[in-house]
């Protein structure tokens, strides 16, 4: 079978690259009849999507079926499939736009500083202004930064911005060519300069070589534009000599072309300086800029894209934890985080039929819910707990109907949408209030993840917010209440949480009341020349040391609480009580139907983004039956049998061998296994062909290499 | 040699040295230490223990040496002497390779020195016994090595020879030099190594390797110095496969797992819609796992086209990373021509070319699907290749699917490239046999250090020529004929490598036969052959350029027959 197919495209197999057309031209160009109705539906979707975000990328995915398949073994109704597709297409771009915003915002400070510096340095004579931008080790996020730099710095002014990456500038000539091309092309714009290798400029019709800075000079003079900013994105990767040459060259042209340099630096300026010659470094006049640390960027992305109320899908605590850990432990870069996030959305909406329930009320109705949906809901873990809970609560008829009555259940399912939103609002408000107190130093991500997995219950928590709250002094209490009121009033723009003052009349009123009371108490205490304290304040318990007649006396502070103090204590108690009542939330897993809107599966994420090819390979080779599922090798169970694919047999022998392998022995071991006497009964030449193949594959996969220590020996290279 | 001679004339010093060694408290426990240690310290201690060191010695060394070593315990003194100085065998034209000799010197020097210095009667016989192990090793290696002698690349290899670690080597070499310098003061050299021995912990050698070690432990275990012992068998009795035989046998082999492999592939094919979705979302798919994924990718390409899952103007470009001549220019050129058939690459660095290409792509609506077979194959591992590919993959109108065969392919990309590629990885273990990806015979012969034949063999040539213009075929026919003639005349041996034809002469003939009109054209044609490694050229001592064909005579005849028909 394989052989036959091989012959059909054999010719192409030996070509390095070719344009493939698996089908004849006609069929390739026109979608087959079966797929015809679907694109028509999609078209509307994508049109809508374009309205939503108007991104250029859409043109490519325009009339194309995104490829959502009907689930439930194909029983899912087209309507539901479509809805899932729509959900994805509306939800993700919105989120992505927000993330991009966050990322851009994060760089804003740096951008401002850099442009101020460069503007200020304009007058500097004899030295090239150089901005050293400490980007940190993550080169993946540099692109955005430099893109933004190009945008901001070119805005308005007559500035040319050239981005250099080490890969693009292997030598001086290439670097100069790139600089000159980029700096002039932008000027040329529509001038149809196009593919000219030589840059021809000037009234005198002179032609310049494309790496002659004179060309740039003339072009700049023509355009009357001032300066050229050259940005070395990954300065560490540039050759020392190249940097030196470039800087020297720029310096010698400095009187004619105003160069400014930017260096993206992953390590430190000192290290960078150490690489340059002193004489060269003298030409630079620099300043250092720091980019926002990855951690805080992650935090804001997290807030807006994961926790924020705009996020359609909730990522479950265990997935989130592993995502965040990966960010912290491995320098994975924020881009990876975003990709993972996107992939989670894709997985959920693509593969979970219940994800239709995420749609808003306008789109989802009873008709959409098929018997399969109902059945799927009944098989959920959360359904089970819910029914059990209602039985416990003696709501037997409710439980009964849930189990028997499809319509009743459907009604319940549809109601869940609102409940979900309420839950989320409650969760975010609680988190926001906790964060607003400023009493907890845990990062928001941790707070959020814990809240999802364990819920928020201030009264039971070990290291709760309440203890530090109780110990606060009167003034701090007042300002705390002030913060809380503020938080309620304004909400959190980061989290997309609007102020909920009207919803929380009671809370606001009580808070205000406590505040007034405390303020009054403070006044009264001031009148009586005493400081206001509560029984929780430290003083009441601390030993007092007094020095009397050169002797130290220890005495308990027995100062009893005054009436004001008692009242203050009472106020604090009330506040703590109020706070813990209004800030609470149950763990997400306890919610009925949370499976429809929480995605918490780690495995596709891990498989897809953190592959373990070594383990996969060694498993395939050591237990081929796991993959092949053939009868002949099923007995092996981790040992070697003759029926296994040759490479697998050799791999077993390979594992048993030491660091140096004698091929002759390997061959005799193999041949003994498969030779005429064995069940396989292969003749020598056939066995040898197999052996060659296995050995060749082992080598191609990098398991062995030639060893010159002994003839016909190979060296082991991998210990997986 | 010289060293030993220097040592021999002063036997008086030896007893003294020996006694001191024996009383040395550091030396005694060494006896129980690792075998290697034992080996080194034996001479002094045995000498002090008994007056008949010979017997003890033989026992000891036999433990060390492999079974075959025993018969050679009694060697002739001449042989031994030849072995010691590294240059001697070369001069004598001995069979032994330098590697074997050097290794011996490295391993045995201390014994030798101590033997000479520490034993009362420095008889040759005594000495010979002591170095039984060395000789056994030599005998062993002599037998193994046979006619093979490749000097290049040895320097690193010997150091870690099977018997000794590089660390010991250093120690011993130091010791050696010390011995040479401080001959009058004998205690120092033996003491120094004694202390060193303390430092390196005792190594136990057990015949059965420990089971279920974690892989890193396994590594250290298996790379323990002295542990790697392999038999002296070699493949000389086995008639290695030729390309022809390989392929003719291969054609008859029926894979008993064919159905399972097919089934496995169909399982993977079930995720095609998912992959399409991922690609449409800007991810690149990377398929990894054991087995050839070429057919799977091909099937995926067919699926993509058939279902109209792609935006309308679309092109599929397949890149075969495993083809040895794959170059970025060719890849970019192919993509360019896929976008716009009239597109011509300008000159410049691949990065600049790629930028131009992407600019062209942005101006159209075409979507390009890049399917890269074996993205981790060696031609694509070259510097710069991956970054250009990443640059391509990052373009929104380019979607990329690739396959990776090695277990460490993620090392190809740093985080910048990774995020440009935006990979999703899928375990696609297919168990399918590698076809064109792997030139098995060459691969194995290279691995065995046999001279690798050119790519493809006879079929390879036929295949290459099929894709070349008529002129090239004629030229090659001419070349083959000429080389055959030379071979006949020279009564040529089996290989054609030796028989070369003069470049000038071939050129003139080519002009006569109207194959080409100018030297430029001639060179261009030759270049094509060079690229496919079907000819080789070199200059002789007079500077005459010679062309030869890397085929055997019978192969050449077969090729000529094909070409004539």
From TrEMBL, chain A:
Record-linked InterPro entries: ORC3 (IPR020795), ORC3_ins (IPR045663), ORC3_N (IPR045667), ORC_WH_C (IPR040855)
Broad class of where this protein is predominantly found: nucleus
BP term (GO), one: DNA replication initiation
Biased composition (Basic and acidic residues): 1-16, 47-58
PANTHER family listed in its UniProt record: ORIGIN RECOGNITION COMPLEX SUBUNIT 3
GO molecular function, one term: DNA replication origin binding
GO cellular component: DNA replication preinitiation complex; nuclear origin of replication recognition complex; nuclear pre-replicative complex
Region (Disordered): 1-65
Function: Component of the origin recognition complex (ORC) that binds origins of replication. DNA-binding is ATP-dependent. The specific DNA sequences that define origins of replication have not been identified yet. ORC is required to assemble the pre-replication complex necessary to initiate DNA replication. Binds histone H3 and H4 trimethylation marks H3K9me3, H3K27me3 and H4K20me3.
Coiled coil: 504-535
Source species, domain of life: Eukaryota
UniProt organism field: Lasiosphaeria hispida
Subunit structure: Component of ORC, a complex composed of at least 6 subunits: ORC1, ORC2, ORC3, ORC4, ORC5 and ORC6. ORC is regulated in a cell-cycle dependent manner. It is sequentially assembled at the exit from anaphase of mitosis and disassembled as cells enter S phase.
Subcellular location: Nucleus
Pfam families named in the record: ORC3_ins, ORC3_N, WHD_ORC
Keywords: Coiled coil, DNA replication, DNA-binding, Nucleus, Phosphoprotein
UniProt name for this protein: Origin recognition complex subunit 3
Domain (Origin recognition complex subunit 3 insertion): residue spans on this chain: 369-556
Record domain Origin recognition complex subunit 3 N-terminal: where: 57-357
Family that this chain belongs to: Belongs to the ORC3 family.
Nucleus found in the keyword field: yes
Domain Origin recognition complex subunit 3 winged helix C-terminal: 616-719
TrEMBL record, chain B:
One GO location term (cellular component): nuclear origin of replication recognition complex
Domain of life assignment: Eukaryota
GO biological process: DNA replication
Compositional bias per record (Basic and acidic residues), positions renumbered to this chain: 122-131
Compositionally biased intervals (Basic residues): 193-206
Region span, Disordered: 1-137, 163-218
Keywords: DNA replication, Nucleus
Residue ranges of every copy of the Origin recognition complex subunit 2 winged-helix domain listed in the record: 496-555
Gene Ontology molecular function terms on file: DNA replication origin binding
Pfam families according to UniProt: RecA-like_ORC2, WHD_ORC2
Main subcellular location: nucleus
UniProt similarity note: Belongs to the ORC2 family.
Quaternary context: Component of the origin recognition complex (ORC).
Protein name: Origin recognition complex subunit 2
